[in-house]
Amino acid sequence: MAEPGSSTAAAGDGGGRLRNAFGGVLCAFTLLLIGVLAFSIRLFSVIKYESVIHEFDPYFNFRVTQFLSKNGIYEFWNWFDDRTWYPLGRVIGGTVYPGLTLTAGTLWWLLNSLNIPLSVETVCVFTAPIFSANASWATYLLTKEAKGTGAGLMAATILAMVPSYISRSVAGSYDNEAVAIFALIFTFYLYVKTLNTGSLFYATLNALSYFYMVCSWGGYTFIINLIPMHVLLCIVTGRYSSRLYIAFAPLVILGTLLAALVPVVGFNAVMTSEHFASFLVFIILHVVALVYYIKGLLTPRLFKVAMTLVISVGLAVCFAVVAILIALVASSPTKGWSGRSLSLLDPTYASKYIPIIASVSEHQPPTWPSYFMDINVLAFLIPAGIISCFLPLSDASSFMVLYLVTAAYFSGVMVRLMLVLAPAACILSGIALSEAFNVLTRSIKCQLAKLFDDSPAASGDSSAESSSASTASTNSAKNENRSEKTKTIPKEKPSKNRKKEREVAESVPVKHKKEKKLLVLPMEASAMGILLLIVLGGFYVVHCVWAAAEAYSAPSIVLTSRSHDGLHVFDDFREAYAWLSHNTDVDDKVASWWDYGYQTTAMANRTVIVDNNTWNNTHIATVGTAMSSPEKVAWEIFNSLDVKYVLVVFGGLVGYPSDDINKFLWMVRIGGGVFPHIKEPDYLRDGNYRVDAQATPTMLNCLMYKLCYYRFVETDGKGFDRVRGYEIGKKHFKLTHFEEVFTTHHWMVRIYKLKPQKNRVRGKLKKLKSGSKTSSTIAAGRNKNPWQ
Question: What pLDDT shows up at residue 562?
């Protein structure tokens, strides 16, 4: 016959299993809702506008994905694109991060294999929202490893809506970051998972996830520097373990070998300074592992002797490696660092030496309002999350803090890297909110228990406790009698042991109760705290929805504005590209500033001189010099490049601020960096950039000024520029070497054609008519086509 105690325990185990099963189902359902939220909040761009690719770089990615889906993977790797960087061209397979393209191409192939006939453009538009849901689930896994399920769910919910991530993952934002942020978070999760379990299986998956990150984005260098920093931190703080070795060593070896397989990375995985930190920490880790191994084999005396030997050899090896690295670094003019990496380490480097990097708006340092716009109330929750990570401090929580600190620094250097800060901010904020809700709800629960704890219940509880105590004493007496029959043990020792055990058992609950009393808050304070957290979360949700619907959903290819007479749509970009596609020859070359190269190639299918890849600074400087030069000199430069059309973007009529006039000083700086005769002070009046009557003659006579303001005075009779806020300086002029062929409806895009040489010298021929007719006849005879 079963004892009552065993049946009660079985019932308790069954209830616990049922509770755990219900909790697992609820957690899975919550994660599903988080994924739906992350996907749906990014669809405002499709709902309000249309299913269209956004920005500039996504158009190149879309064009590459089209080529991949049409021609296959092998043709993609060997694709030489003669439509870009004329006359140089570009090898696409060796100069692009293929992760995004291969991911979208695989999705398109799978959907079509399942008889779901979606176009390549549709798949590209919705790739970013799909992977935002994946990123939310990866955030849950990462935070769960550090602080439990509650914190993981909270962090995943926050990341699904954070504006910083929405800005790069709305529907239509088909850029590398669309899949790279998921790869970043998932790599960190597998690293922390390996730290907690010591599993070689997760270590291998970590290396594969790192490989996917390398394929997707150049920001993979953040991973291969952050993880070594954490490993070194663990070693210095005395937290070395075999789990740490398993988590890091396979990542360095296998991850580096896999990274070298990506054509755009190649031997840079072992030859550039961005990767040297991992190799140095790899050596230090092995030295520490050897020391711990020897310590387990030898006596303390022999261990000291061996330590001296190991340290001496280790220092010698480290010095040798450092010397080799210094030699390799010294041989490079940039000390083995790329220009973008140097601009991160030294925020003034790009503005001094590489203006092409400094000219990109997303490479500028952020302002304080940018933080409140992109992470909002999370900025106030992060400090509480940091404190929670230290209570208690573990390998996983220390990694979260280190991730936040480094990401916060890099986000302060480059506004684009706010995207890297967003997951860390969400994780720390989720931890803070989870801990706060735990304390507040537990406090309310304890206070309610005291409130409903009346005297009859108390007496009943005391009688139950006394009866259970008597039952326990009876059972213990029976067990003692059985032990006396089977074993011969003196009576004094068991009594002393039982007395000590009873003292320990009594002291532990008292201590536990004291600790719980310290965490119990008054009922009113707990209720007020929960209410404030809910209100804070409400403000965050409202801000995120507004950012997703208004701030980050408008595609740059189609612009809108509201006024007293309703909504205005500016579709000038697509109008201009459609004109180029239908009214120019397929082999015609189009010159413009590099911002519009990708769109011109993808939407107009015309050859461009420069584009957004910016791999050849001299070629871009040549275009900048042409735009900064007088009309005749610019014609000669463009004619030498076989250019037939020149495209400029002008916003003076409608008030569009991101036009070429506002970008013009960067053209001057980049051109002057290669061609010294272009000097920025020549375009400034007393250090100020002006296009009004106070502008310098060099500015008023350059090609960019003429192409933008040609016939502009005809619009209002005054030539008032709405962006700059004043009337232009030179209003009435004619073009001698270029002719206007197309201007869009709102004057935002203007296209000019180079005049042929015979038109350019017609004026000189007229002057020669007063000369001898014989010489003109001879000249005409020479110019006559002998084949006619």
Answer: 79
CB neighbours of 52 closer than 8 A, spacing ≥ 6? 125, 172, 555, 557, 558
List the structure tokens of 561.
């504005």
Cα distances (angstroms) measured from residue 587 to each of 290, 581, 648: 65, 11, 20
Predicted local confidence at residue 787, as pLDDT? 31
- Distance in angstroms (rounded) separating the CA atoms of residues 28 and 743: 55
| CA distance linking residue 312 with residue 294, whole number of Å | 15
Q: What angle do CA 195, 196, 198 make, to 5 degrees?
A: 65
Per-residue confidence (pLDDT) for residue 127, from 0 to 100: 95
pLDDT for residue 339: 57
- 481 contact partners, CB below 8 Å, separation of at least 6: none
| CA pair distance 746, 562, nearest whole angstrom | 15
The number of residues making up the chain comes to 788
465-468 contacts, C-beta under 8 A, 24 or more apart? none
For residue 263, what are the contacts with CB-CB under 8 A and spacing of at least 6?
77, 93, 94, 95
Low-confidence ranges of the chain (pLDDT < 50): 1-2, 455-517, 763-788
pLDDT score at 449: 80
Helix (H, G, I), strand (E, B) or coil at 115: coil
Per-residue pLDDT at 290: 83
The answer to whether 219 and 180 have CB atoms below 8 angstroms apart is yes
Q: What is the pLDDT of residue 4?
A: 53
Chain-centre distance of CA 670, in angstroms? 27
As a whole-number percent, the residues of the chain with pLDDT over 70 amount to 82
Tokens coding 102: 């291969």
Q: Cα–Cα distance between 701 and 691 in angstroms, integer? A: 11
The 8-class DSSP code of residue 487 comes to -
Query: How many secondary structure helices (H) and strands (E) does the chain include?
Result: 37, 13
One-letter amino acid of 271: M
